[in-house]
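We emphasize that the prediction below concerns an isolated chain of 150 residues; any contacts that depend on oligomerization or on bound cofactors are therefore not represented. The input was used exactly as deposited, without trimming of termini.
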Amino acid sequence: MHAALGDEQGAERHLGAADELVADGLGDVPAWVDYFDAAEHVGTRAVSARDLTGISRNRRASDHFTDALALRRPGFDRVKVMDRIGLAAALFAEGEPEHGAAAAHQALDEALRLNTLLDAAAGPRRTGAVDDVRTRTKDLAAARPTTVAA
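Result of the prediction step, given as a token string:
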């Protein structure tokens, strides 16, 4: 939140405290937060660095996103897609368009695989809940069309 508000010192203070917690081991944590690990922490640092682009002289956001991707455990496919999207956006913002494009293609490939899974799971089923998902997906696609600037 501090980074989103442009408060580099506040962001670094809280992330530094989290660094210490992660380094010391989180021990027994409640089930609602047991997903939080080193990869999630590095991902948080990546988002903070991205939000502080242009303000901070600390590490580049793309470096944090790369680290988060390397640390992600199997089964975190959706988060990996979000990390790849963040990596691509960071690389574009950092003046690395070729690397950003490569990361964007990886994110799109992974997102398409997730959509393929969703299609396979929902395709043959005709229930009210599945129809609601299809309708919502169509509505979102219509409300937020993807456009490419020339």
